[in-house]
């Protein structure tokens, strides 16, 4: 589920980046919170969701115990919802 969330966040960040590549909009959006939001969505959001995805994927092989699926889904919902 975190891998799907990663793709969703990365896609949304990519669409916001397309608007920033347009010269006319880039001039009007320069030094606004739109640029800051795009930067944080791409770097912070995508990177941390990717790390969580890897953690949940490799957790059982590293520690030999299963994690609670309920808490992992709650983690996903609260993290993506709060972002």
Describe the structure.
It is a single chain. The chain has one domain. It is an all-alpha fold and 83 residues long. The protein has helices at residues 2-21, 23-29, 33-63, 69-82. The longest helix has 31 residues, at 33-63. The model has no long low-confidence stretch (mean pLDDT 84). Helix 1 packs antiparallel against helix 3.
Task: Detail the topology: elements first, then pairings.
Layout (H helix, E strand, L loop, with lengths): L1 H20 L1 H7 L3 H31 L5 H14 L1
Helix content: over 70%
Number of structural domains: 1
Gap from first CA to last CA: 16 Å
Into which percentage range does the β-strand content fall? under 5%
Please give the count of helices: 4
What string, H for helix and E for strand, traces the elements in order? HHHH
Shape: elongated
Low-confidence blocks of residues: none
Largest beta-sheet details: none
Strand tally is: 0
Q: From the alpha carbons, calculate the radius of gyration and give it in angstroms.
A: 16 Å
Question: Average pLDDT across residues?
Answer: 84
Structural class by secondary-structure content: mainly alpha
Assembly level:
single chain
């Amino acid at each position: 589920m975190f891998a799907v969330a990663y793709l969703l966040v990365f896609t949304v960040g990519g669409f916001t980046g397309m608007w920033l590549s347009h010269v006319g909009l880039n001039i009007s959006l320069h030094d606004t919170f739109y640029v800051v939001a795009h930067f944080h969505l791409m770097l912070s959001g995508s990177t941390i969701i990717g790390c969580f995805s890897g953690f949940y994927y490799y957790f059982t092989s590293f520690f030999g115990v299963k994690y609670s699926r309920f808490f992992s889904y709650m983690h996903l919902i609260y993290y993506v919802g709060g972002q």
